[in-house]
Design brief:
Bound molecules: phosphoenolpyruvate, magnesium ion
Oligomer: single chain
Distance between the termini: 39 Å
Strand content: 15-25%
Largest sheet: 8 strands, mixed
Number of helices: 36
Number of strands: 31
Length: 911
Amino acid sequence: MTMKKWVYQFEDLDIAEQYVGGEWEAVRGLFGGKGANLAEMCRLGVPVPPGFTVTTEACNAYLDDGGVFPETMWEQVMDGMDALQKSTGKHFGDRDNPLLVSCRSGAKFSMPGMMDTVLNIGLNDTTVEGMIELTGDARFVHDSYRRLIQMFGGVVMGIDDDVFEEVIEKTKQMRGIETDTDLTAEDWQAVAKQFKKIFRSHTQVNFPQDPEEQLKMATEAVFKSWNGKRAVDYRNAAGIAHDLGTAVNIVTMVFGNMGDDCATGVAMTRHGSTGEPEIEGDYLINAQGEDVVAGIRMTHDIAQMKQEIPAAYDELKEIAAKLEQHYREMQDVEFTIEKGKLWMLQTRDGKRTAQAAVRIAVEMAQEGLISKKEAVLRVTPEQVDFFLHPQFDPAAIAQAHGRGDMVAKGLNVSPGAACGVVAFDADLAEAWAKQDQKPVIMVRPETKPDDVHGMLAAQGILTSRGGRTSHAALVARQFGKPAVVGVAALNIDMVKREMTVGDLLIQEGDEISIDGNTGEVFVGRLETMVPDIQDPWLIQLLSWADEFRTLGVWANADYPEDAQRAREYGAQGIGLCRSEHMFFETERLPLFQKMIMADLSVDRREALAGLLPFQREDFAGLFRVMDGLPVIIRLIDPPLHEFLPDLIELMQELTDLKLRIRKAATLTEIDGLLQQLRIKERIRERALALREQNPMLGLRGVRLGIHIPDLTRMQVRAIFEAACKVSKEGITVLPKIMIPLTGHHNELKVQREALEEEAKRVMAEQKSEIDYKFGTMIELPRAALTADQIAVHAEFFSYGTNDLTQTTYGISRDDAEAGFLIEYMELGILPDNPFATLDKDGVAQLMQIGITKGREVKPDLECGICGEHGGDPQSVALCHTMGLNYVSCSPFRVPIARLAAAHAALKSDLK
Ligand code: PEP
Ligand code: MG
């Protein structure tokens, strides 16, 4: 039996590939992302310090076995160490030439800062001396030793980092200095000594002097960190599976803190916020990696490296280009320069804002690095949403500047505008946001992985320290939270729970606004607005998306302004104009109520005649905007009582009126009040008469049109008068009249015949011919099941999935989302909210039956969807698969639906 391989040298990538069957994803699964990429960089000839990976399989075996290393794993690790000794010429634990290694976690999917790392393993009281002789740099060696004790203490033994940091702070205060770099060798030596004492007092054992024991304990700690609370929380939030495990990478130490010809840094091969094709990042001279990410020292912009360490900068640029060429993706790298020599410690796909994702995808396609299809697939429909996110109104910003409300500026690391009350810790931010429904801005000196739950709950994140690649920036970007970091002018006092900027005092609970696009911080609340999508890269990306998609994207719009926006966003038609919305407007509601109240048909006709000009102008406006594109106008749908005052309010008004009559002083006053009373009583009678137990299943939709034929006839007249008028202006009008809530084909037949007669009459009167169509909504299960009969009388179908979901599930769409449905989702009874994402197994099945049956009768029957699901990416994909002709959604969702439709087409091509 061959021995199971748990450990792979970076050079052994080929063996690993063979083991997993050649798939890169599987290699990543085995080595974790970090290990796989280190091995790949090694193969590419990029300078990587010698090292090896203990696989995720080993981690899983360790965890499954209740914390025991699998058989032979440790022997293989020691063999790996032998190989490192050979390639470096150094020896683990040797006094005179000690080999030092780092022990780093690395899972398949990046989980920044969620799991553990220990550096400088191999240092002890003896090797420290040898290292000093070897390097001649006592300061560096003592600093490295205290880092090992600190990290080991925190990661392996669970000692709170603040206990260690306090010692450093006190030493600096005692010595009257501000930065760590000013501490001397003696200072660090004393610090390390105190750290050992702390270690002993917290753990009752001495800091382990045996390097092998250090490595073993660190490896175990990394394995265990996979199941640590913050890692589990992060995986839950990011949707990462819990059974992947982490690998452990054991890598020869290289040092960025051995003097001024040393440095360490992090960089993105393109700008992570804007997508600009320039290296972006931070670095520190004479420092170790964690100093940069922790945001403890103010980092330098990578552009400065060109002057400070030109040779290393040029090499880094070259490597960045090489990595991008190889991975065909923007990379996020970590590097260290030891005595002028550049080493790459990590590469991975870079996290980016939505804005950057779009620009990078488009420019990489234009550079020929990826195809247009890949570019389209690299941006998620949800990312497009950013471009439609609230931003501050420029006028409000100008006014705030004028008032002096812009109080500080930091780095603009994650775009979007956010306002809220200041909360200084994650738990409070979460409590205020969730329990009190208060918008919150979470403010911290810097964030740590434990803060993620607060960051997710907050509207935005503000920190006084940290750079573009700090924890706060990375997490904010990933979750699309506006964030401003590194606002040095903020003095945060965590004890008093307040912050000052100059003389200004801001207390916890005070309202502030932050602009993730500019990095500006304001006191008070600023007006927000939704941006126009003018981003040239987005326009390009969406136009490529349009080349690939086969599904049309239309919009639901009632008013010309909505239609205008929909058209600008790329809508190819209006899929739903809810014509009754116009009746709710102030000048029209009394007329509409009069129509409802009328006992005699003459009175009703008179009221309807008053409404006609309004409807005609409404429709004319829509037709003008949509010149050349179809406009579906749905005839009145809701139950009539919705247009009358609320019964309870009405009762109250009646009681008030009666009281006033009793107290009235004059006869004229009484007369006036009596008249009002009579009108209100009639309304009450009517409202009572119209009251239904289940109004959503009552007199609505096509039933109304049949019950009050004059009403829908007036609407059809308005549509055709408008169409004739606008078409005479030279505009191409393509009206489609849609009848709602059909359940039986006879309903449609009767209604259509009556309405088509009216349409013809108007066209004859106007001496005009309009190209029109009659169709119906399919929003009842019976309609879907009898779609073949219905299709005889319809030229198109539009699925009203709001009602279809309601009637299929038998769940009220108006109440459920505030009640038990939430509980159902929390309990996992339903995977998604069926009113947001199409129910694949139920509602979508009915739709499919309807499409198939409808097209059996009319093969070219046009089928679309106009329920809310039309703008949901997952549902759009389903609509593509079902063979719908188009989706219709709110104008703001149109760009998202365009991209989602392209994804659906491209992904189904790949199958
Ligand atoms: C629907 O039911 O899906 C629909 C679009 O109509 P409404 O929401 O107006 O009922
Ligand atoms: Mg409906």
